[in-house]
C-alpha cells in the first residue's frame, strides 16, 4: 500500500445540558451546540487546501455535522458504521456523576471493573476502529479524514502508539481534536495528537504498535 495521511478527528462540541458531563455513547444522538458549529466551521477552514480526497464519518449526528463542515462543497461525507462511539450499555445517556454514584467499583485508584454493564469492551471497540482505518486507507489515494469520537479515537491511538488500552484516558481528545496518522514503509505512525485550529498538537513520531501494525 502506498503512503497515506489519515486525519482522525473528534466531533465538535454537542448540545448537551450546560455544566453536566454525559456519557453520550451511541443512544444519545445530540446535534452540535452553537459553539460546536463554530468549531466545525473552523475545522472546515483548517482542512481547506490540505488535499483531502474524502471524508468519512460516524453515523451519529454530532459527527455527521462536523464532517459536513469539513467536506464543505466537496463530495458528501461517507457514513462508516465502524466509526460510531463505544456502546456504554447501562451508562449510555447518564451523567458521569450519576454513573460514579451507581457504579463505584469502576472508579478510584484501583477499579475492579472496566467495561460498563452491557457495554462494549475496549477490545471490541478497537477491532472496529482498526477495521475502519483499514477500510479508509484501502480506498484513499493519499489523504482522507475520519470523524469519530473520543472513546474510539483513544483506543486506536493507544494501539498505534504501542500503549496498553488501560491508558486510554491519558490520550487527550478535546472537542474538534485533530490527530494525524501516516502510513509509510509498511507501518502506521502517529504524527500528531489532539491538534487542530485552536490549539497546538502534542507531537509524536512512533511506529504504530512498535512497528508491528502492518498491512
Explain the overall architecture:
The chain has a single domain (4-84, 124-211), classed as Rossmann fold. 28% of the residues lie in helices and 19% in strands. The protein has helices at residues 34-47, 61-71, 96-102, 122-138, 150-161, and strands at residues 4-10, 54-57, 78-79, 143-148, 178-184, 187-195, 202-207.
Task: Summarize it.
The chain has 215 residues and is an alpha/beta fold. Helices cover 28% and strands 19% of the residues. It has a single domain, classed as Phosphoglycerate mutase-like (Rossmann fold), CATH 3.40.50.
What is the secondary structure topology, with strand pairs?
Layout: E1 4-10, H1 34-47, E2 54-57, H2 61-71, E3 78-79, H3 96-102, H4 122-138, E4 143-148, H5 150-161, E5 178-184, E6 187-195, E7 202-207
Parallel strand pairs: 1-4, 2-3, 2-4
Antiparallel strand pairs: 1-5, 5-6, 6-7
Name given to the CATH homologous superfamily: Phosphoglycerate mutase-like
Number of helices: 5
Provide the CATH topology. Answer: Rossmann fold
CATH architecture: 3-Layer(aba) Sandwich
What is the overall pLDDT average?
A: 91
Task: Name the helicity range.
Answer: 25-40%
Task: Give the radius of gyration.
Answer: 17 Å
Structural class: alpha/beta
Protein traits:
single chain, 215 residues, alpha/beta, Rossmann fold, 7-stranded mixed beta sheet, globular, disordered C terminus
Amino acid at each position: 500500500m502506498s503512503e497515506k495521511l489519515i486525519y482522525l478527528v473528534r466531533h465538535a462540541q454537542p448540545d448537551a445540558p450546560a455544566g453536566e458531563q454525559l456519557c453520550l455513547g451511541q443512544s444519545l444522538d445530540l446535534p452540535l451546540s452553537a459553539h460546536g458549529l463554530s468549531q466545525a466551521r473552523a475545522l472546515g477552514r483548517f482542512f481547506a487546501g490540505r488535499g483531502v480526497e474524502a471524508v468519512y464519518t460516524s453515523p451519529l449526528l454530532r459527527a455527521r455535522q462536523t464532517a459536513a463542515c469539513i467536506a464543505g462543497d466537496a463530495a458528501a461525507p461517507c457514513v462508516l458504521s465502524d466509526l460510531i462511539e463505544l456502546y456504554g450499555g447501562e451508562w449510555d445517556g447518564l451523567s458521569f456523576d450519576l454513573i460514579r454514584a451507581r457504579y463505584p467499583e469502576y472508579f478510584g485508584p484501583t477499579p475492579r471493573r472496566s467495561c460498563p454493564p452491557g457495554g462494549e469492551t475496549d477490545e471490541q471497540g478497537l477491532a472496529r476502529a482498526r477495521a475502519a482505518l483499514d477500510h479508509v486507507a484501502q480506498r484513499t489515494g493519499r489523504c482522507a479524514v475520519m470523524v469519530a469520537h473520543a472513546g474510539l479515537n483513544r483506543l486506536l491511538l493507544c494501539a498505534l502508539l504501542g500503549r496498553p488500552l488501560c491508558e486510554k484516558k491519558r490520550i487527550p481528545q478535546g472537542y474538534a481534536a485533530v490527530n494525524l496518522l501516516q502510513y509509510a514503509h509498511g507501518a502506521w505512525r502517529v504524527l500528531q495528537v489532539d491538534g487542530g485550529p485552536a490549539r497546538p498538537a502534542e507531537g509524536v513520531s512512533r511506529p504504530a504498535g512498535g512497528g508491528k501494525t502492518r498491512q
